[in-house]
Amino acid sequence: MSLAMIAAFDSLNPTATALQIYLLSTPKPIARSISFIFGVFSAYWAMGLLITLGWGQLMKTALSTVNFAWSEPYFYGIQLLLGIVLFIVGFTLKSSTQPNQKKRPQKLTADRTFLLGMAVTIWEFPTALPYLAAIEQITRAKLDLFSIISILGVYNLIFVLPLIILLSIYITFHQESTILLHRINRAIAIWSPEILRILLLGLGLLLITDSIGYYFGHSFLKFSQLQ
Fold first, then answer.
1. CB 203: neighbour CB atoms within 10 A?
2. Structure confidence at residue 150 (pLDDT)
3. With contact defined as beta carbons under 8 Å apart, do 209 and 35 qualify?
């Protein structure tokens, strides 16, 4: 599954969507919304970069302390574990038929909406399992720093794309967009848990299958060498 597809599913965030639609209904909505988008993007990108670089350093340490022949099965074991976790979470995730009602922030300036975007993103990061799966794939590719920064930047641009689309709808239709924006908000709130469930199940199954395939292939190769 491509990183772009994971990012697209990951972007269906009911909380960020509800807050964005609320900001678009307040005075000076464009400045506040743009600031909010930058806050979400900055926080998610920064945390992804920190985790990727930290995980990459852990991989380098492992490769320097253990034999390479054992390091690869070790990392596939981590992938298998991550796949199992994703599959279990997806299997146990319950769908909601009613959108969650979020408390609306009051009296927000543009700088505060930036901080709001960061705060919401950091608060919900522990549930960002698709992002962690994407980071695992990026780390395993052993890319240079510039490539990691660029790929995470593109991922997060896709992640905030729904917020950009909502802003574009408002700029295009202005007050006439109110009903449409609220319908979009309701649809995302209702369907995003089910979409996320399917994503987690599919991604978890993909990682599990890839890991098991590696171990079977590795075992078969060793068996062949013994013959």
1. 24
2. 93
3. no
Q: Would you tell me how many other CB atoms lie within 10 Å of the CB of residue 10?
A: 22
Buried b (16+ CB within 10 A) or exposed e, 124-142: eeeebbbbbbbbbbbbbee
pLDDT exceeds cutoff 80 at 215: no
Closest CA to 19 of 8, 35, 3, 7: 35
**Concatenated DSSP letters for 105-152?**
P-S--HHHHHHHHHHHHHHHGGG-HHHHHHHHHHHHTT--HHHHHHHH
Contact 26, 172 (CB under 8 A): no
- If 0-12 CB within 10 Å is exposed, 13-18 middle and 19+ buried, where does residue 55 land? middle
Residue with tokens 């395939």: 213
Q: Between residues 179 and 171, which one has the greater pLDDT? A: 171
